[in-house]
Amino acid sequence: MSETQAARDGAAERRTGEIPTPAPGRLDIDGIVEAFAHRMMYSVAKDEYTASTFNVYQALAYAVRDRVMERWFRTQDAYYRNDVKRVYYLSMEFMLGRVLLSNILNLGAYEAYSAAMERLGYRLEEVAEEEAEAGLGNGGLGRLAACFLDSAATLGLPFYGYGIRYEYGIFAQTIVDGFQVEAPDNWLRFGNPWEIARPDAVYPVRFYGRVEYRRDEHGRDRFDWVDTDRVMAMAYDMPVLGYRNDTVNSLRLWGAKSTREFDLAIFNAGDYVRAVEDKDRTESISKVLYPSDEKRAGKELRLRQQYFFVSATLQDVIRRFRKVHRPWDLFPAKVAIQLNDTHPALAIPELMRVLIDEENLEWDAAWAITERVFGYTNHTVLAEALERWPVELFSRLLPRHSQIVEEIDGRLRAVVRARYPGDEERLRRMAIVRDEGERRVRMANLAIVGSHSVNGVAAIHTELLKTSTFADFHELFPGRFSNKTNGITPRRWLLQANPRLAGLITEAIGDRWVTDLNELARLSAFAEDAGFRARWAAVKRGNKLALADVALRDGGPVLDPDTLFDCQAKRIHEYKRQLLNVLHVLALFHRIRENRAGDAPSRTVIFAGKAAPSYVFAKLIIKLIHAVGDLVARDPIVAGRLRVVFLPNYGVSMAERIFPACELSEQISTAGFEASGTGNMKAALNGALTIGTLDGANVEIRQAVGQGNIFIFGHTMAGIEALRESGYDPRAWIERTPELARAIATIRDDGELGRAYPGLFRPVVEALTGEDRFLHCADFASFAECQTRVAETYRRPEDWTWMSIRNVAAMGRFSSDRTVQEYAREIWGATPLPMKRPDPEGS
């Protein structure tokens, strides 16, 4: 069809409303235009005179989804016909980011869609900006889950994500007078064109009630969970498209529905509020991502969320397994369930309950099945982050599961006593149910005992699990622990997020790197080419200008692309040490103001990240960042050489802007506290150089890029342990580090910032001069010296660019494709099922 004919057809369609049904599967420009017009008329109900840019996005999203649907049906049918083993990935978070461009890229049709939208008078990238970011995650845990979805589909693995369809995300962050202000993240207010509601896939989920004991006709003990409250879990499916392979997997999210809309009798009696009370209370389960658990009601809602989604998920998994009649002992041969942290650990007692109470299996047979099915990924060694539920709450909400957990705990205790007689301290450490002032259920211990595999997410993290955090379990279950270093998908974090760099790389080495990131190693030779280095530097500058444009468009600060972009973009937390970065900024401020900075390059220090609403200290750090930024900006001597900015409402879309522009990646957590990190990988893959401690995946990044191509500082884990054993006193470190003392003095009540904000930053000073749990003071001098080396290197742009290219060339091992392949081979026992591409008429 010619453009003239397409225009005539479009005009006729607007006059008559007769839009030709688009040919199925076509991905040529004419086919895309026809599909778009069809969806604009029949799904969005708009025409060219009334359609907004958001309506254009809606129509395009539906049209793209149609192409994905055809592949989705074929994939799922192939899984059934081949009776494959399926992997079920249970996660409380899936931080997907925007989906439109990702799906278009994975269809292999970016150029066609871009040209089609241009024909219609729109820019594809501008249309894509209209998409709301799915409020299904908070940080690294959810982003990792999203990368795994992409990699599993690209690898052709039968893989299903399961989680909760939160109506509201974590929160939308705004900054008012330097303070974080949380607003509701109502990401679903205009609907989600990528999801398919499944009112036929609804399961009852029970809470509360009591347990009745009886003996059956065979004299066996039986337990009936009765008098329960019921909530209905309804499925919403989102397709997950692999890269150019026609595989489409599923992300299934559960929404809570009341068993009845409202009580008609109460309504007729005139009590309208109470009539809908049950509906509102029931459906609150899937209302908000991570309700505050500071209060009792929040804790209970959080536990209800966790059981709600694992109960519905297991019912769905079992339904799929039972479609083909087969004995239960084949369940592990067809099902692998991965627990993404402890949030879904209730799946272990839930499967035991189903097998024992509903399927009448004996305990030992049920436990053998359960243990073989589950794998557990640990993401933290922070004691406060390892979930522990009060037994009183646990037993009231889930009385039958409480009995099962007590039984698991009792059997574990018997094994430990037999293996280590008289070792009561070991027994106390390993217990699942333990008295900690009040009796609590320790979910990490439950997950370890109930899984055949436990993995950490970086080499140093896994070693810490085996030798410290869970050393007793590693000794009891030799071979159960393994390492699976995290990775990121190159489709999202290079091809999509950084098209300038992706294009330059493809021009140099071809496009095989998109599905085999090890191909990037071929870039190393190009680091020696001065012309290529110049083009590489030009790409980075272009990305810095793009970030500056975004910041300005959103009403933010002016960013100078001729300065070093020094970025720390991640969740705000004490152990991630944004505070250490701020202290260094104050040191730089004093150096410049007092003419002691020499010819150090001008620097823009960029912060981005959210603090949990109840995390008061983290929110205070955000205010301190803004106060220091104001102090720097007001000084006429300093302002031209140093700038501190905070980019609000950090999420995937903002990360896709920051990482391509980042030149120095701040990965400065206290050694031993960051499990892995994936921001370090995203920044390095986009050409940033890393300054960091030997923590998490930084250790493996250093091994990959070489010691000379990364800036490492600070105490190691062993050094920290020795420091603590000798009696760490931060005041001694402050006294012998004048720049640190000066920075802290600026924050004190009688200092320059302290006087401007009386008493506000006193908790920060007290934390630094008191316990200093995360060793800011001990690592400051090393950090400052390392930053001096950064500045010296940045003043040699040829060297900096050479290092940048070599860093990217070494990032092959940090693909989530590699990570998922290791899980599939060593934990899940799952194999890919390649999809045969259909005969692509016009595609």
Write a structural description:
- This protein has a nine-stranded mixed β-sheet with strand order 5-8-9-2-1-10-11-15-16. A six-stranded parallel β-sheet has the order 19-18-17-20-21-22, with helices on both faces.
- Helices cover 49% and strands 14% of the residues.
- β20 (664-667), α27 (679-685) and β21 (689-692) form a beta-alpha-beta unit.
- The chain contains 36 helices and 22 strands.
- The protein is α/β, with parallel strands linked by helices and 843 residues long.
Concise description?
This protein has 843 residues and is α/β, with parallel strands linked by helices.
Number of alpha- plus pi-helical segments: 36
Mean pLDDT: 93
- What overall form do the CA principal axes indicate? globular
Which residues sit in consecutive blocks of at least 5 with pLDDT less than 50? 1-20, 838-843
Q: How large is the radius of gyration?
A: 28 Å
Strand count, sense and barrel status of the largest sheet are: 9 strands, mixed
